[in-house]
Specification:
Blueprint: E1 2-5, E2 8-10, E3 13-15, E4 20-21, E5 25-26, E6 31-33, E7 36-39, E8 44-47, H1 55-64, E9 72-74, H2 80-83, H3 86-92, E10 97-100, H4 102-112, E11 119-121, E12 127-129, E13 134-139, E14 149-153, E15 158-162, H5 179-194, H6 198-208, E16 215-218, H7 227-238, E17 243-250, H8 256-270, E18 274-279, H9 285-294, E19 295-305, E20 308-309, H10 311-323, E21 329-336, H11 342-348, E22 356-357, E23 361-364, H12 369-388
Parallel strand pairs: 8-9, 9-10, 10-11, 15-16, 17-18, 17-19, 19-21, 21-22, 21-23
Antiparallel strand pairs: 1-2, 2-7, 3-6, 4-5, 7-8, 12-13, 13-14, 14-15, 19-20
Helix pairs in contact: 5-7, 5-9, 6-7, 8-12
Bound molecules: MU-OXO-diiron.
MU-OXO-diiron binds next to helix 2.
Length: 393
């Protein structure tokens, strides 16, 4: 249990050993499930709970804090890494009410089997007094589920934002003490979790501008006591601006596509374009997602397998399509033995990426001189497109 401000405590759990979230997302630095205790002169509230695997830690922290009566459990988000301990907290404090918005209430009833009478449903902007402290509920939908909201304590100027502004980072520091490290983790988190909801994030950022915020306490990672650090980062990531960067995500079986990628990446570098190359059979998908936050262009490299793309390339295309990056241009390079529909199939897999498709380059077997020339032409096209659109840094 650690104190953010007088009578405001962090009572959640650090998960140092977690390495995969949702059986999908790599967690190279672990994570935390933050839960906060706010004690007013009249009432006590717990803000979010923790992943069910860490329930014992949460309950231990609450008991250590000397909470003999818990009045409210605020659920900012229904996903189980924040709500999963709710039933156990309610067993310990059966008179506590779960405070949340109507959408989240219905989700919690479905996910956790909680009964209707356990809830107090609150509207956007509604306030709940704890005595000398107030909980103000601010709907911040789609970060990253439709029911997500934040809770603001005006007396302390703290925003409890749940997943919004979070980072998968296990650290013993309650507050951010290494902004470079947290920037990396928070950007990875944004890329994997938030990027598909860029438009809604911008609307939520505008809404939060109306609040005076001194501390942002998310439900993953350290607490921000310099909130402009993470707010400015989000404004940058969620903006329409892209950078003079190309992501080359490829897989090669017998080396032909690999040779094309080697030549192509060199050609991009020679033209002054920042380039990131990812080998898809071994890639950390979080790193790939992060690169897609800013890149103006993505190029997928794949051999032809059973008429279509290599499954690793198809996976990357599926993932990129789901993450909806603001990428402006896309293309495909690769090789084939006797023909196929690799380009058509890959192109059809990325309808959410509103990118102009630049002419692909396909080599029959080993790339020849004409294929290398075509790759140079694609690098020229990318440079021209970037310049024409003012994408120079
Ligand atoms: Fe951290 Fe959407 O749960």
């Amino acid at each position: 249990m650690r104190q953010l401000k007088p009578n405001v405590y962090a009572v959640g759990a650090i998960d140092w050993d977690a390495r995969l979230f949702d059986r999908l997302i790599p967690l190279p630095d672990g994570t935390s499930y933050n839960s906060y205790l706010v004690r007013g002169t009249e009432k006590t509230a717990l803000l979010d709970t923790v992943d069910p695997a860490k329930t014992d830690l949460l309950l231990g922290n609450i008991v250590c804090a000397g909470v003999d009566k818990l009045d409210y459990i605020v659920a900012n988000h229904a996903e189980q890494d924040h709500s999963g301990s709710l039933p156990d907290v309610l067993l310990l404090y059966p008179n506590a009410k779960v405070v949340t918005n109507p959408k989240c209430k219905e989700m919690l009833k479905g996910l956790l089997g909680l009964e209707d009478e356990k809830f107090i449903a609150v509207e956007d902007g509604q306030e709940l007094s704890l005595g000398d402290k107030t909980l103000k509920f601010v709907y911040t939908p789609w970060v990253h589920w439709p029911e997500t909201m934040s809770t603001y304590v005006p007396e302390e100027k703290i925003l409890f934002s749940c997943d919004f502004f979070g980072s998968h980072l296990a650290t013993s520091s309650l507050f951010v003490d290494d902004e470079a490290a947290v920037y990396e983790s928070a950007k990875r988190y944004y890329a994997e979790i938030m990027m598909p909801f860029r438009r809604q994030i911008n609307a939520n950022l505008a809404k939060l501008d109306e609040l005076e915020i001194e501390i942002i306490a998310p439900s993953h990672g350290p607490v921000y006591d310099r909130p402009e650090f993470i707010i400015d980062a989000y404004k940058d990531w969620a903006s329409d601006n892209v950078k003079n960067e190309v992501v080359v995500a490829y897989v090669s079986m017998h080396g032909s596509t690999g040779k094309m990628v080697l030549h192509f990446v060199e050609a991009l570098i020679e033209r002054g374009i920042k380039t990131r190359q990812f080998e898809l059979a071994t890639v950390d998908i979080g790193k790939l997602a992060m690169a897609l936050v800013d890149a103006a262009t993505i190029v997928i490299g794949s051999p032809t397998v059973l008429v279509g793309p290599h499954p690793c390339a198809a996976y990357a295309a599926f993932l990129a399509n789901a993450l909806r990056p603001k990428t402006k241009f896309a293309s495909i390079i690769g090789s084939y033995g006797w023909g196929g529909k690799m380009v058509e199939q890959l192109s059809a897999m990325i309808p959410n990426i509103k990118a102009e498709i630049l002419e692909p380059v396909l080599a029959k077997g080993e790339p020849k001189e004409a294929d290398y020339a075509a790759l140079d032409r694609l690098a020229d096209d990318i440079l021209t497109k970037h310049k024409e659109n003012g994408i120079t840094n």
